[in-house]
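Course assignment 3, question 2. Fill in each field.
Student: A.L.
Task: Predict the tertiary structure for the chain below.
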Amino acid sequence: MGSVIREIIVDASPERVWQTVGNFADGPRLTTPDIFVDCRLIEPDLRQMTFADGNVVRERLIARDEQARRIVWAWEGEEVAHDNTSMQVFAENNGRSRLVWIHDTSPDDLCGWLATAMDQIAPEIQRSLEGAN
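Answer field:
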């Protein structure tokens, strides 16, 4: 299993960042509206997301910890044998936040694609979260 880890410093309070990224139903659409054109719950713990290019993925909520400001989900699909993704929000100096995004997946060869995607999406997430203040 491979891991891809990204950290994003956000000029917004941890509470505000968590309010958005901790929202399993709408978080992806709120943080990356140009990438995800639709995000909806199809079961209480299963969301379906539609990319701007029309691709559709499903992700299952694994855990959500309000105290730790941590959310965990799993990508479900034939292309992946195992997936575990988390986002956790930490307080930084001067009212800022650090968002830690970890994607553990198998097969390992998905990690290159995921790293590229995360590198492209991270600045979008940062801009959206900072603009939401």
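Instructor remarks: The CA atoms of residues 65 and 98 lie 16 Å apart. The beta strands are 2-10, 36-43, 46-51, 56-65, 70-76, 82-91, 97-106.
Grade: pending
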